[in-house]
Amino acid sequence: MSKNFKALPIQLSDKLIAEIKEGNSLFQKPVKENGMPAFVKPINPTTGKGYSAMNALALGMQRRDDPRWMSADAARYAGNWVKEGEKGTLIEFPKTSDIQAIRTAEGKTIKDDKGVTQTKTVEFEKPQQGKAFLFNAEQMKDVMPLQEFLAKQEEGQTLSPVERAEKLIEDSKAVIIHGGQEAYYDKKRDAIFLPEKETFENETKYYLAAIHQLAHWSGHESRLNRPMEGKFGSQDYAREEMRAAIAGILIGGELKIGHNFGQKDAYMSSFSRILKDEPFEIAKASRDAQKIANLLLGIDLKREQKQSTDIGFKKGDEIAYLDTTYKVLETHKNKSIKVEDADGTRKVLKPEYGLYKSLLEAKANPREPEMELDEGRGQSEEQNYQMER
């Protein structure tokens, strides 16, 4: 692998900074010149599954109208073929196993009577970072026409995008107070304030404003419990806005209502500064945005119920969280635990600690691979290591 290879968060941050400077980032330009949404939720057409937030951003920033993404191998298995000369887009995912060639003691591969290399599945002790290059359906031959695919996707969906947005807001049970000229969330009162619906340019913009404020609402201590103490204009305030903006992109893509970060001009310089100084912040912001989207879309309801009833720690637990894995070495009667991370650092965590709560949530909601484990195989290391500009 090239020594100049940059991790996906760094590539993503670099590209976002450049796009913000040019004024055409997803935060600034929610609609393309052809009238299509700037972000289309990417999915694997074979499995029907989507991709987690940071990968979804990486794919969505390619500005494709077609939502279908998969590796060259997966496309070939599905009877499709990547067009000659096309470049893939890098994604990263937690990898728990690998398919490897069976070799002799001398290191030679073992083949069957037909000359096919024999393989075995190797399970990793700890999740490792996997990488793969994906291609959009627009880059492939012999794919189902887009309109036919989208029609199949919408089968059984009786609500329009606006109706789905209205239902999401109603299902949240958030306190929403109408009146005034500004849209904002008051954490102390745990209430959202919105101008009257008729004062918005159209109904869609009203719902997008409401969804953005619901993203902030999700950070209350009774819900996702994010730090939200920064004052307007501060970097901490901008970090929270970045999370809400990314969540709005994800939710808008899911509902097919689009997105609109109405306060874009006030935060672009702060976003650029954060991404330049701390490029891995985009990974953290994306993870938080995924949690926001999951909460508001109702994806995690059953898992949260399970967590509240029977999830706890036990000795030997290994929990993947952020960019490392924590192993539980000891548990105590007061529910505190002693853990060790992948670097060998040990610490005692009490139930009131933020990391304790995060690990409990990570255990209840383990990260799942976003693609088939063999989807990264067969990809040339020379295929677009740097994200397309």
UniProtKB/TrEMBL annotation:
For region Disordered, the annotated ranges are: 360-389
Pfam families in alphabetical order: ArdcN, MPTase-PolyVal
Q: Where is the Polyvalent protein metallopeptidase domain?
A: 163-287
Basic and acidic residues biased stretches:
364-380
> Residue limits of the N-terminal domain?
11-115
Protein name from the UniProt record: Zincin-like metallopeptidase domain-containing protein
Species of origin reads Mucilaginibacter dorajii
